[in-house]
Every structure is written in structure tokens, then in C-alpha cells.
Amino acid sequence: MKKSIIVALLLFGVFAQAQNKKWTLKECVQYALENNISIKQSELNIETAEIEMLTAKGNFIPSLSAGAGVSENTGLSFNPVTNNAQTTTFLSASGNINVGYTLFDGLRNVRSLQRAKISKLASQYNLDKMKDDISLFVANGYLAVILNKANLEVLKSQNEVTKEQIKRTQELVDAGSLPRGDLLEIKATDASEQQSIINAENSIQISLISLAQLLLIKDYENFDIEDEGYDIVDDGVAGRDISEIIASAKENRSEIKIAQQNVELAEMDLKIAKGANLPTLSAFFGYNTRYTNTPSFIQRLDPNNPTITEQIGTVEGTGQAVIGEFPNTFPVEVGADSFTDQLYQNDGIGYGLNLNIPILNGFNIKGNVQRNKINLERSKFQLEQAELDLESTVYQAYVDAKGALKSYEAAELALESQQLAYNYAKERYDVGLTNAFDFSQSKLRYDNAKIELNRTKYDYIFKLKVLELFFGIPATELKF
Q1: Is the terminal CB of the chain with fewer CB neighbours within 10 Å at N or C?
Q2: Which backbone phi and psi does 84 adopt, to 5 degrees?
Q3: Where is the signal peptide, in residue numbers (predicted)?
Q4: H-helix or E-strand containing 354?
């Protein structure tokens, strides 16, 4: 009984721990990379590219095929062994083995294998880009939850101050030191803050649900994140020159690598299309045999009268008969040879070379070559555009990060000023030198300054990480 209670308590503890689990950003990113549907689809594209590579390698292997057949014929049919017409019922079987090998096809097999390798590499770059994008989406959603939680803490902390002010104001009103209107003003501020707290709690829940949906986690009620230990961590990327960041992005970003691979694919497609203008040389070898169970007839010598004489002609001029002696035979029906014997007796082989020279095909090859030339030029333009887009995007990210830093620094200064103003207003209110409305306005500006500081802080963190990602730092190695 005691053992059962202990086991139950342990299970309850494990369950409670699982329910109270708080996800870190690293765990969220890793979970998204392992479970996101778009990433899984990109991984399937890599598997498809591997199959294409296997097929391209198979073109270098000789083709081998074997066939066999069995049939029963009734009536007038041709014997497959003797090739004579017979009116009977017989069983026949045949088999064959054929081998073919392409000796030369304008290097299209070689180009196809090279193309398959490039295609696999392009699929890998697409997967890397997808992982970077998903990691940024998760980080942005994660920071949004942290921001909402930080804002809620600000609102709760300030509301506690408001409640203390209500108690103190109530005492002063009861003592006749302050008018009742000041108490009503403070209570109105408390009600407004309570509403803001409720809205902040809703914002947290909504942002948590959005993050859980991005991670494909269905247990929304118990999903929560670790909201401590995240601060501004700058590895020095923000201090680098913009030209250095752009150069690193062009070297490391998947967008450029994908565009470069597309150019190589187009070049390979053009070479494959041109290869169709060259002759194709192939070799073949075939082996076949057959069997039938139909009986056959042989000529047997008559032992009692082994020879016969017959006139075979006359001598011209004299008319003398010319007599010839021939074996005296008669037909005898014999059964079919064994299956094994017939396989050897009736077999045959064939081998040779096939040469195919393209001469005129309605301009299909020429048209295909021209289309691939156009595709090559288009892919080169797309590479050039990708470089320009990346340069513009990186420059924008650089400007955004610099601007976010300035906003954060300005928010820190604003908070310091608002805190001094709030402290001054509080001192004046405590001694009755200012009314409740002016004090509430000062407190509201102080609260808003704290919330603005939180917003600019996490906005700068995210934009800084975007810049680091462009610089070439992997998404899983970003520091917060």
C-alpha cells in the first residue's frame, strides 16, 4: 500500500513538473526546427534530390532485362522449335535475357549527374534559409511574450504604488487635510490601471497562443516560456562597417547561394540540351531459348530392307535408265526432348551496336537549346537581383538596428527624467502641494516611460539578432 502511494506521488510530481515546464528560447527554436511543417517539406525536397541523383547514377549502369513465357496451342499452329505448321495441341515455353549499355550520348548522362548534385545542394540551401526564417519567427514571437510580461510587471508594480496612495489619501481625507475629490481621482487611476493589467494579461495569453501555434503545440493552457535572463548581448556586429556586413551576407546567406545554384542548374540544362545534337552509340546483347512438348518425327532405316533402288533419270541420246540406291526409311514418331536438353539445343544469341545520328527533328532540339539559353540569362538576372535585394535588406536591417539602439538609449534617458519628475510630484503630493490629478498624470507618464523602455529594448534585441544573422551567425548560435 505504501509503495503504491509513493509511486502515485512520484507520478504526480512528474506530471506537475511537466505541466509547469517553461520553455527557453533555445528550446523553442530547436523544437520548431524539428517539427515545423515547412521545414519537413524542405527536407522532403532533399530526399527527392537524392532520388534524382540515384537515378542519374543509374544511367551509367547497363540495362538488364529477362523475360519468360508459356502457352498452350490447339489446332493449326506453328511449332516454335521446328517452325512447322502442325494441327495438334502442344505446350511451348520461351525465355530471353537482354543487356544494353549506352556508350556515348553526347555526355548527357554525365551532365545529368552533375545537375542532380547541384539540385541537391540547392535544396539544402533552401532548407537552411527556411530554418533561418523559422528561427527568426520564433525569436520574434518569444520576445513579444517577454515584452508583454515585462509590461505587465510594470503595471502591477505601479498599481501597488497607487493602492498605497489610496490608503494614504483616504487617511488625509478622513483627517480633513485633502478634499474628497483627490481620493476619487486616485481611485479612478486605480480602476484604469486594473483595466490595463487585464489587457496586458490578455496580450500575454494571445502572444503565448501565437507562439504555441508557431511551434505546433496544442496544449495552450499549460504552455509558458522562461522570461528571465534575456538581455542585450552584442557580439560586436552592430559596431562593424556596413560594407563588411554586406560582404559577409553575400558570402553566407542562403538567398545568394540558392540563386547561384539556379544559375549552375541553368548552365547544366543548356549543356544537356546541346548534347542532344550529338550521335548516340549503344551496345546490346541478347540470349534466347525455347521449349515445346509436341512430338516429332524421325526417319528410321528398315532393318529388313535397308535400301531401295529407284530410277532417277535417263541417259540423253540412248534413253537408258539411270538407277540410284537410297536408304529405305520410314517415319517414326518420337516424344519431345527433355526441358533441359531443349534449353541448350534451341538457344541463340544476338549482339551488336546501334548508332543514332540526329539529322532533322522539326527544330525540337534547336528550340530546346534556345529556351535553355533564355533560362540561363533569366537565372543570371535573378542572381543579380538577389544580390541587390540582399544588399538593400541588410542595409535596412543595419539602419533599423542603429535606430532601435538610439530609441532604446532615448527611452532610458526619458525614463530617468520621468522618474525624477514622478518622485518630485510624489513628494509635493504627499505634503499637499499638488492635487491628485496632476500627480496621476505624472505617474501615468512614468508608467508609459517604463513600458516604452521595454518596447525599445526588445525591439533592439530582435533587430540586432537579425543583423547578426545576416552577418553569418547561425540562428541556433544567437545569444540573448
Answers
A1: N
A2: -100, 145
A3: 1-18
A4: strand 348-356
Say which DSSP state 225 is in: B
C-alpha cell at 41: 517539406
**C-alpha cell of residue 146:** 517577454
DSSP letters, 282-334, are EEEEEEEEEEE---EEEEEE-SSS-EEEEEEEE-TTT--EEEEEEE-EEEEEE
The CA distance from 47 to 298, in Å, is: 64
Cell of 128: 537552411
Of 92, 69, 96, 71, which Cα lies nearest the Cα of 82? Answer: 92
Which three-class secondary structure string do you get for 166-220? HHHHHHHHHCCCCCHHHHHHHHHHHHHHHHHHHHHHHHHHHHHHHHHHHHCCCCC
For the chain, the farthest-separated pair of C-alpha atoms sits apart, in whole angstroms, at 175
CA distance 424 to 421: 5
C-alpha cell at 315: 541417259
Distance, CA of 424 to CA of 83 (rounded, Å): 120
Q: Is 147 exposed, middle or buried (0-12, 13-18, 19+ CB in 10 A)?
A: buried
Amino acid at 433: L
Write the single-letter amino acid at 222: N
| 84: CB partners within 8 A, 6+ apart | 78
pTM exceeds 0.70, yes or no: yes
Helix residue ranges, H only, 216-304:
242-252, 254-275
Report the chain (480 residues): mean pLDDT per 10 consecutive residues: 43 44 86 89 91 90 91 73 68 89 88 90 90 87 86 85 81 76 83 90 92 87 80 75 88 88 92 89 91 74 79 76 78 73 84 89 86 93 92 90 91 91 84 76 86 88 85 74
Distance from C-alpha of 285 to C-alpha of 291, rounded to nearest angstrom: 21
Helix axes 242-252, 364-430, angle to 10 degrees: 130
Contact 31, 215 (CB under 8 A): yes
CA separation for the pair 17, 10 (Å, rounded): 10
| Ranges of each domain in the chain | 2-35+105-278+358-477
Contact status, residue 469 vs residue 132, Cβ threshold 8 Å: yes
DSSP letter assigned to residue 68: E
Find out whether 480 and 462 touch, Cβ atoms under 8 Å: no
3-state class of 230 per DSSP?
Answer: coil
The whole-chain average pLDDT of the chain stands at: 83
Q: In terms of CATH architecture, what is 2-35+105-278+358-477?
A: Up-down Bundle (1.20)
Task: Give the residue among 126, 379, 136 at the shortest CA–CA distance from 254.
Answer: 126
